[in-house]
Amino acid sequence: MYKVLIIEDDHKLRSLMGQYLVKWNFQPVLVEDFVNIDQIALKENPHIILLDINLPGTDGFYWCSKLRQLSDVPIIFISSRSESMDIVIAINMGGDDYIQKPFSLEVLVAKMNAVLRRSNSIQHLEKDMLTVGELTLNLQNAFVEFRGKKAALTKNEFQILYLLMKKTGQIVSRDEIMRALWEDEQFIDDNTLTVNVNRLRKKLEEIGVEDAITTKKRQGYLLQ
Hints:
Number of strands: 12
CATH architecture of the largest domain: 3-Layer(aba) Sandwich
Helix content: 40-55%
Distance between the termini: 42 Å
CATH superfamily of the largest domain: Response regulator
Number of domains: 2
């Protein structure tokens, strides 16, 4: 049974989600203390977090950033905000997906299952390391290393780099990467992929890997 931390200040919606998720064999933990969210997450150690943006006091963007310092637990943002920039910020902060209110509870469960499948697939890869030249990807802890320098990757960044390294020298289409990340294209946003690739590029640059990922216009990405 997967434990899910529900961080939503609307009592009625929070209770409704909790009741529905029980039917799908999840173990919901309903958060009512919006001051110590990081400590609650550490104590509960959930498999996945549902996080509203508009919270009393500090918003969900802040808490996502704090949680990412502590854990790589999957985080799905839930918000009434519909601006593209809100989605971009949510993903930049380390969110794994974004659901706009109002939403179908069936879609919520589908997105949760997709995120959990991605998370589990990373944990059950067969090899320990994937190496291309001097670039090494640790498949057990999602660290990338280059000439003694390391960087921690989020699940999405890891999946993108894993796919590009497996197909080094080949153009990998955006559609192929999105299918690998989200499994079902109806649940993705094109901006999300761009944000994750740019974030991955920045982390590679920080450890000394310059211009590793090339954008091929209207085709996809290439690792050289």
